[in-house]
Amino acid sequence: MKKFWGLAGAAVLALSLAACGDEKQDSTTEKATDTTTEDTAAAFPVTLKDALGNEITVEEAPERIVSLTPSNTEILFELGLDEEIVGVNDNDNYPEQVAEKTRVGGIEYNLETIVSLEPDLVFAHESSMFSDELITQLEAANIEVFVVDNATTFEETYETIEEIGALTGRTEQAEEIVENIETKLQAIQDKVKDAEPRTAFMIVGTTPDIYAVGQQTFMNEMLKVINVENIVQQEGWPMYSAEDLVAANPNTLIFTYEEDVDVIKNNPAFSTMTAIKDDAIGLVDADTTSRQGPRIAEGVESIAKVIYPEVFAE
């Protein structure tokens, strides 16, 4: 009998301690939540200069955000702002949660839709074909617009992520994203560091002419980081004739669209090229290789696998 009551007493004591523990944990959780809220509030107001040279001040963490470009959208979701994002670009396809958001336009934007969403902050992009008129109209509706720089390097991309993080009260998350990208990139670089240097030609379009990735572009930065020489020496996105492409004769041909692979591969005019004869042709993901956002390491890896297949086959 004494043993029974002893066990029963121990059980009651254990339950009592567990209950106290739960109460203490709930209290700790509440305090942590309160601290996080206070930290976020303390980070505002924030004033930053955007790509147009305008100083934008955000008084408090935005609760309703519209993104006008896919790269901005990916950054915002990666920062954990799913609930705050109310409007996205027509071309947004990542992450899958974008399917639940209101579309505000692609190249041209629907002003009425954007205004109806009552955003606290709109993120535009320097490379987008937005008009000054749109920004003026949004500002007239008391909507803040921050135009993000068109990053051409990884460092500039990191700055963009940190700026968006600062404007949304997610500074720590932004720093974590940047550190994660850097870690992934370093792992890729370590993997290819002993491989023989290669040359490549990246094709982003073949209709009606061949469009290539040139110098001073984000994609070119991806080639440089894995020790690949871009055959194209012009800046931007130059057009190439069939004769010029054959004369360039790179080790590898990289495509971002599947239909362009067939155009080049099945054309006898290119049959003498080293890349064609060696079947050194690869299709990479157009989104991760062109969007200046949290998935750039995935874009670099997709290119590296095409150029150094022997390394990634190990």
Key structural traits:
314 residues, 2 domains, 16% strand
Outline:
By secondary structure, this protein is α/β, with parallel strands linked by helices.
Name the poorly predicted regions: 1-25
Number of strands: 13
Global mean pLDDT: 88
The helix/strand series, from N terminus to C terminus, equals HEEEHEEHEHEHHEEHEEHEHHEHH
Give the CA-based shape.
Answer: globular
In the CATH hierarchy, the architecture of the largest domain is: 3-Layer(aba) Sandwich
> What portion of the residues fall into strands of 2 or more residues?
15-25%
Structural class: alpha/beta
The CA-CA distance between the termini, in Å, is 68 Å
Please tell me the total number of domains: 2
Please estimate the helix content: 40-55%
Radius of gyration: 26 Å
Number of continuous helical runs: 12
Major pleated sheet: 6 strands, mixed
CATH level 1 name of the largest domain = Alpha Beta
- CATH topology-level fold name of the largest domain: Rossmann fold
CATH superfamily of the largest domain: Nitrogenase molybdenum iron protein domain
What does this structure look like?
The protein is α/β, with parallel strands linked by helices and 314 residues long. The chain folds into two domains: 46-179, 3-Layer(aba) Sandwich (Rossmann fold), CATH 3.40.50.1980; 194-312, 3-Layer(aba) Sandwich (Rossmann fold), CATH 3.40.50.1980. Helices cover 46% and strands 16% of the residues. The chain has helices spanning 2-42, 70-78, 111-116, 132-140, 154-167, 171-192, 218-225, 242-248, 258-265, 274-277, 296-307, 309-312, and strands at residues 46-49, 55-58, 65-67, 85-88, 102-103, 121-125, 144-148, 198-205, 210-212, 228-230, 239-240, 252-255, 281-283. The strands form three sheets. Strands 8, 9, 10, 11, 12 and 13 form a six-stranded mixed sheet that branches. Helix 6 runs parallel beside helix 11 (296-307). The protein starts with a helix and ends with a helix. Residues 1-25 have low confidence and may be disordered.
